[in-house]
Amino acid sequence: MIAAGSFARRGFVLPLALFMLMVMALLVALLLEGAVQELRIARGDVAGARAQAAAGTALADFFASHPDSALLARPRGFIASGSNTAGADTTRVTLQSLGNGMLRVTASARAWSGGVRGDAANLGFVRIVPDSSGSPGSLRYRRLPGWWWAQLP
Length: 153
Hints:
The chain has 3 helices and 6 strands; from the N terminus they run αααββββββ. By secondary structure, the protein is of the alpha+beta class. Strands 1, 2, 3, 4, 5 and 6 form a 6-stranded antiparallel sheet that branches.
């Protein structure tokens, strides 16, 4: 014969087990969502760092190049632009003539990492001057004194 008190406890373990499984599934889902968010943030940081490196390199490469004498004849406000694409990454350098051989140079880059886009840009100011160490008539870029370049937001 079965005691009357055993019927009250018979159905207690199954609902408790199901409740614990639901709590664990919710916890796992929340932790997985947090891990996915961290992965997306990391990919965004990588894409931003790649874009910043590309923009800085483009600006440095431009300043290391030799200017064309035709830039001196351009009127104030003249804008010229060039871009370079490597895979999904794009770098663009834009020149704006400020007059008297001064240029405003903007180097911007867009890079991708794991489907996340990163953008960065650098701005610099230079003057075209005669190159005393080069051949006669050659020109070079000279950075303006003080804060001659800055990262753009």
